[in-house]
Amino acid sequence: MPLVTLTSDIGQQDYLVGAVKGRLLRINPEFDIIDISHNLSPFNYPQAAYVCRSAIKNFPEFTHHIVLVNLFESKPEQMLFAFHKDQYVLCADNGLLSMILEDKPEIVIGIPLDKTAIKNTLYHVDVIAKAITQLVNGEPIQKIGVPDTDFLEKNPLRPLLGDDWIEGQIILIDNFENVIVNITQEQFEQQRKGRRFKIVFKRDQVIERISGSYADVPQGEKLVLFNSAGYMEVAINKGNAAGLFGLQGFNEKMNQMSSMVQNRLFYQTVRVFFQ
C-alpha cells in the first residue's frame, strides 16, 4: 500500500483538500494518505521548507511526499519528482525542492504538463498521482519523466553570523504562539563555542539559558529550547511569546518592503549575543 503525505497552503475552509484526496484515491484506491499540514502561510517558502523537512525525515523509507505549495508562482510547465535519502518528494518547479532538501537531490525528474490542459490544482494532483502509481507498479523513475531536468533552485534560509552573535529568522509561530527560529542546535553550538549567551527582546526581556522542556520554568516564565526538529524555539510556559515579544513570522514579501513598514513594533528576527 503506497504511503502518501500531503502538505499544502490550501487551508481547510472549503472543499479543495477533500477534492485532492478524492482525486488521489480515484487514480489509485490503494493510496494510504496522511496529512502533514494544509495551513502553511501563502508564499512563505522558509516555513513550508521547515515543516516539510522536519516531517519527512520521520516517515518510513520510500514514502511519497506531495507538496502543493505556491503552484502558480509562474506558468507551470513541469512538476518535479525527486528521490533523496530514501524519500520521494513531488512538488512544483518553484524553488521549494532545494529549500526542503538543503541539498542536491540524488535523483530528480521533470514530469511535463500538457500544454493544452487547464492547469488547476486538481490537474496537478492527477499528474502526480499517475506518476506515483507508475513507480509503485514497477516503472523506473527515470522513465516516468525527463531525467536530470533543469529546475529552479532557491537557497535555504540560513542564519546570519557575526563574531559574537547569530541571528535567525522566525519561520513559524505555532498554535501556542511559540516562536520557531531557523537556528539549529548544531549551528548554535558551533557559533557559541562554549560561551555564555544572551537573547534580548523588547521591554528588556532577556533569556540566558537553554531549557530542556517547558516544565523547566514556572508558568508564565519565558524560555528557549531546541524542539523535536532540532530548531530554536522561543516560548512562554502557558503564555504567548509572539505577542509579548512583538515577533512575527518571516515573510519574503514583507522582507522586500520598506524598513519603515518592517519596524512597526514587530520583529522577524531573533539575535543571540555571545559573551
What this model shows, in words?
With 275 residues, the protein is an alpha+beta fold. It folds into two domains: 3-147, S-adenosyl-l-methionine hydroxide adenosyltransferase, N-terminal (Rossmann fold), CATH 3.40.50.10790; 160-274, Bacterial fluorinating enzyme like (Elongation Factor Tu (Ef-tu), domain 3, Beta Barrel). The chain is 24% helix and 29% strand. It contains eight helices and 15 strands. The strands form two sheets. Strands 8, 9, 10, 11, 12, 13, 14 and 15 form an eight-stranded antiparallel sheet that branches. The chain has a seven-stranded mixed sheet with strand order 2-1-3-5-4-6-7. A hairpin with a 3-residue loop joins strand 11 and strand 12. Residues 253-266 have low confidence and may be disordered.
> How many angstroms separate the termini?
54 Å
Which sequence of SSEs, written as H and E, runs from N to C? EHEHEEEHEHEEEEHEEEEHHHE
Pairing-aware structural class of the strands and helices? alpha+beta
Alpha-carbon Rg, integer = 20 Å
Q: List unreliable stretches of 5+ residues.
A: 253-266
CATH names the topology of the largest domain as Rossmann fold
Task: Tell me the overall shape.
Answer: elongated
Largest sheet report: 8 strands, antiparallel
Number of domains: 2
Q: What is the fourth-level CATH superfamily of the largest domain?
A: S-adenosyl-l-methionine hydroxide adenosyltransferase, N-terminal
Number of helices: 8
Strand content: 25-35%
Estimate the helix proportion, in percent.
Answer: 10-25%
The count of β-strands is 15
What is the CATH class designation of the largest domain? Alpha Beta
